[in-house]
């Protein structure tokens, strides 16, 4: 049976870069955030999400205003829980359907930003945590999102502490030097093909 390898990492650690490298090596990769974005664009979900908020969260184009929703749930833990209860079960079903296509693969990568926060590791055969020094992460996010250090630190502090994630992970990739990261992944692919 295909092994499910959970891939995660805090904001700015480079988990997307790691996921892309796995994909470039022929490993099937499922990006939960991308699936969630697609699911959030369906009519049914747009209506369900709008009923959660007293404010209008639908953009002029008829899609959900994800940045505004992020701001709202950031301030209200209950709303985040309710939002997740709409999206997460649908992502789970989407992943199960996606997995059927790759049942011959030795393993697949399931990239989830909040893997440990949602106890997603319980549904994986192994997990990979991507880490990077805090200053490196901040720099990457500033360049990528053109946002302030203050907002970035708020997001990082909102995530599960790095030490806790490390204790839960099967494998840890320190992603500071890309060449070294690729080397680690190449070795990991050999290992994962044999578990």
CATH class of the largest domain equals Alpha Beta
Average pLDDT across residues?
A: 93
Radius of gyration: 17 Å
Strand order of the largest sheet: 2-3-1-4-5
In total, the number of domains comes to 2
Overall outline: globular
Uncertain spans, ≥5 residues at pLDDT below 50? none
Helix content range: 40-55%
Quick one: biggest sheet?
5 strands, parallel
Q: Which architecture of the largest domain would the CATH scheme give at its second level?
A: 3-Layer(aba) Sandwich
Strand content: 5-15%
Total helical elements: 9
Q: How many β strands by DSSP?
A: 5
- Tell me the distance between the termini: 11 Å
String of helices and strands: EHEHHHHEEHHHEH
**CATH structural fold name of the largest domain:** Rossmann fold
**Given the helix and strand composition, which structural class is it?**
alpha/beta
Query: CATH superfamily membership of the largest domain, which one?
Result: P-loop containing nucleotide triphosphate hydrolases
How would you characterize this protein structure?
Helix 2 (32-39) crosses helix 5 (77-100) and helix 4 crosses helix 5 (77-100). The chain has a five-stranded parallel β-sheet with strand order 2-3-1-4-5, sandwiched between helices. It has nine helices and five strands, in the order E-H-E-H-H-H-H-E-E-H-H-H-E-H. The mean pLDDT is 93. It is globular, with a radius of gyration of 17 Å. With 195 residues, it is an alpha/beta fold. The N and C termini lie close together (11 Å). The protein folds into two domains: 1-28 and 103-195, 3-Layer(aba) Sandwich (Rossmann fold); 33-101.
């Amino acid at each position: 049976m295909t092994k499910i390898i959970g891939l995660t990492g805090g904001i700015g650690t480079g988990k997307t870069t790691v996921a892309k490298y796995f994909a470039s090596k022929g490993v099937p990769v499922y990006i939960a955030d991308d699936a969630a974005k697609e699911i959030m664009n369906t009519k049914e979900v747009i209506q369900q999400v709008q009923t959660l908020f007293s404010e209008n969260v639908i953009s002029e184009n008829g899609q959900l205003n994800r940045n505004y929703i992020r701001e709202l749930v950031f301030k209200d833990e209950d709303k985040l829980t309710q939002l997740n209860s709409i999206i997460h079960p649908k992502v789970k079903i989407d992943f199960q359907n996606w997995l059927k296509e790759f049942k011959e693969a030795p393993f697949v990568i399931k990239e989830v930003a909040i893997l440990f926060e949602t106890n997603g590791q319980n549904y994986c055969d192994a997990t990979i945590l991507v880490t990077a020094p805090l200053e490196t992460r901040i720099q990457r996010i500033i360049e990528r999102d053109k946002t302030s250090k203050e907002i970035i630190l708020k997001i990082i502090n909102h995530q599960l502490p790095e030490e806790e994630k490390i204790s839960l992970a099967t494998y840890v990739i320190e992603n500071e030097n890309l060449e070294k990261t690729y080397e680690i992944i190449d070795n990991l692919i050999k290992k994962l093909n044999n578990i």
